[in-house]
């Protein structure tokens, strides 16, 4: 049975997401980075909470993204800053559903 997409918006196709980095989409004023990790699709804010670096351009290892500006690491599932200097450095994450090769995100 397919999951209801009532609260989700289609943002892209799965084949638009690169293997080793992210793909940026926008919903209203949310700039969102979509990643594919081991056939799982994960969405996190594209705006690094440190100084605004573009997380979609960051390198990904397992489920961690490294901000391209200063290398801070964020968990793509929880949004937590790995080094945990401060709770203020957590990122917003978003629920993702893929149906028929279309990526849908809930904001
Ligand atoms: S802007 Fe992302 S680590 Fe500094």
From TrEMBL:
Cofactor(s) for this UniProt protein: [2Fe-2S] cluster
GO BP term, example: nitrate assimilation
Record domain Rieske: where: 9-105
Domain of life: Archaea
MF-aspect GO terms: 2 iron, 2 sulfur cluster binding; metal ion binding; oxidoreductase activity
InterPro entries: Rieske-like_NirD, Rieske_2Fe-2S, Rieske_2Fe-2S_sf
Keywords attached to this entry: 2Fe-2S, Iron, Iron-sulfur, Metal-binding, Nitrate assimilation, Oxidoreductase
NCBIfam families in the cross-refs: nirD_assim_sml
UniProt name for this protein: Nitrite reductase small subunit NirD
Organism expressing this protein natively: Natrinema soli
Taxon lineage: Archaea, Methanobacteriati, Methanobacteriota, Stenosarchaea group, Halobacteria
């Amino acid at each position: 049975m397919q999951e209801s997409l009532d609260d989700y918006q289609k943002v892209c196709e799965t084949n638009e997401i690169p293997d080793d980095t992210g793909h940026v989409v926008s919903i209203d004023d949310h700039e969102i980075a979509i990643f594919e990790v081991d056939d799982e699709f994960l969405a996190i804010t594209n705006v690094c909470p440190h100084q605004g670096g573009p997380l979609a351009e960051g390198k990904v290892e397992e489920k961690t993204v490294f901000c391209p500006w200063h290398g801070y690491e964020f968990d793509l599932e929880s949004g937590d800053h790995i080094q945990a200097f401060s709770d203020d450095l957590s990122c917003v994450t978003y629920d993702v559903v893929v149906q028929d090769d279309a990526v849908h995100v809930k904001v």
